[in-house]
Amino acid sequence: MFKGIIVEKDESGYKAAIKDIDKAQLPEGDVTIQVSHSTLNYKDALAITGKGPVVRKFPMVPGIDLVGTVEESTHSDYKSGDMVLLNGWGVGETHWGGLAQTARLNGDWLVPLPSKFTPLQAMSIGTAGYTAMLCVMALEKQGVKPSDGEILVTGAAGGVGSVAIAVLSKLGFRVVAVTGRSADADYLKKLGAVEILERSQFNVPGKPLAKERWAGAVDVVGSHTLANICASTRYQGVVTACGLAGGMDFPSTVAPFILRGITLVGIDSVMCPRAERIEAWRRLATDLEIEKLGTISHEISLGQAIDVATQLLNGKVRGRVVVDVNK
Fold first, then answer.
1. How many angstroms separate the CA atoms of 315 and 161, rounded?
2. pLDDT tens digit string along 96-143?
3. In sequence order, which ranges of the chain are alpha helices (DSSP H)?
4. Cα distances (angstroms) measured from residue 225 to each of 119, 205, 283
5. Which residues pair with 112 in a beta bridge?
6. Contact (Cβ atoms closer than 8 angstroms) between residue 84 and residue 33
7. Structural domains in the chain, sorted by start
């Protein structure tokens, strides 16, 4: 038996609770993992609270991230004792995830834990930090350089935004952060932001074209925010879109694309090919200052995760939330 969060839906409604789970209930997979840590992401909070249609099968163990030790394996790449991590692949949505002490998974979804990171540090990065790195890599692939100008990061105090600021600033970019929480200004400056903007400047309808400013951007918000970023991006600038915290709509025009030649790059971290995942984690090991992880993340117990999920959706959580599933 092991403990985990179980999300259920029946005639009485939607509910999440910590329960004792029999290993016989684990889903199919060729690698069984003793989980050390998981995380609490926006998607996990939606799954736990039922505020969004994230969970596709019931009952479900949420948790799109995990790190731990291989207990049993019939997969050729892994053996008992190996340290591995996982991000995405529909885990926590269609396949039992990381907010439990044991997980059984498809070995093809796993990535070896980089030697530079402890399990706690790896989950301090988690899907959010790995997504941020994918955004940085996309900006670089499109040719964006520090000398080209400022990079805008929205949702700056969240997990993706925090890691994006830390990485971009280390790479020499001038980073401008957007947040709705003025109290987080000092935190964002410690991560490397040189200027803090209020999100109210971006989350309302704007003009099809605005004054050119951004050489690139990392956006987790979508909707009017993404439209306004595109409208104010410089000629041949690049915007990466990886979230929808403000909505799935995109009320923009073609003007920024056909008059300024900007590029809008979609970032998918869930089904991202394994080779790109490994490269993203390799880059994180070299381009993220590990000491900043202590500023970005804080740790909670499995027993606290359900309550913190509601706080996260209400915008009361800063940075990354690491869950020690054995506490």
1. 14
2. 999 999 999 999 999 999 999 999 999 999 999 999 999 999 999 999
3. 42-49, 119-141, 159-170, 185-191, 223-231, 255-259, 274-287, 293-296, 305-313
4. 34, 8, 28
5. 84
6. yes
7. 2-113+293-324 (3.90.180.10), 127-266 (3.40.50.720)
Residues ≥6 apart with Cβ < 8 Å to 118: none
Residues 6+ apart with CB under 8 A from 252: 208, 226, 227, 230, 231
- Count, residues in the chain: 327
| Alpha carbon distance 303, 224 (integer Å) | 37
User: Is the pTM value of this prediction over 0.90?
Assistant: yes
Which of these, 255, 258, 199, lies nearest to 224 by C-alpha position? 199
d(CA 167, CA 74): 37
Alpha-carbon distance of 183 to 318, in angstroms, equals 11
Task: Give me the residue label for tokens 């092991």.
Answer: 2
**Residue of 62, 69, 87, 63 lying closest to 31 (CA atoms):** 69
Tokens of 101: 């002490």
Number of H helices, E strands in the chain: 9, 15
Q: How far is 232 from 212, CA to CA, in rounded Å?
A: 5
